[in-house]
Amino acid sequence: xxxxxLLSTIAVAFFHSLAPDHWMPLAxxxxxxxxxxxxxxxxxxxxxxxxxGSSIVLGACGIILGITVTNLTDIESxxxxxxxxxxxxxxxxxxxxxxxxxRQHSHKKFTAHKTFTVWTLVLIFVLGxxxxxIPIMFLGVQYGWKEVWLLSFLFSAxxxxxxxxxxxxxxxxLQFLLSEKFEHWAHATCGFVIACTGVLIMVLxx
Length: 206
Description:
- By secondary structure, the protein is mainly α.
- It is built from eight helices and no strands.
């Protein structure tokens, strides 16, 4: 395997991970639900594994079954559209729920609701494709399966690491910039930001 492929994998994973849907939903949800840093790290890793893992499974199945990279890319694009719509829907639903809490002046703890929102976000990340990963896997297969797994691991490690760094930085930034008065609007604002992130991703096609 050439150094060019390795360097390309690193570069593609890095720039792919800069897209706001990789970190913004996690950061604002963590802020609104007051997650601890360890909890934020754990959930980010889980969503990252789901995000890259689903594409690795799809890519491996495509290679085994002899499906062309073009067809798989089309499938990934369709998954991207679905995950984008789900992200928008999730944001709107969470925002409406947040507005209801403001109107009701509710200060109760919603443990079940928090758990549901986390797993919903994880599912959206699983459905969200790593479109750039599958062509890289097809490049690696000409050298053997060992290289396919190596490239997949390298891409995944960089993607998840970038997600962690960006999510934590954004979360810390939100804690620093937003006062305690914001807490009243935290859930509603979180939903709005997540929905806007979904719209941005669909419009830009990233």
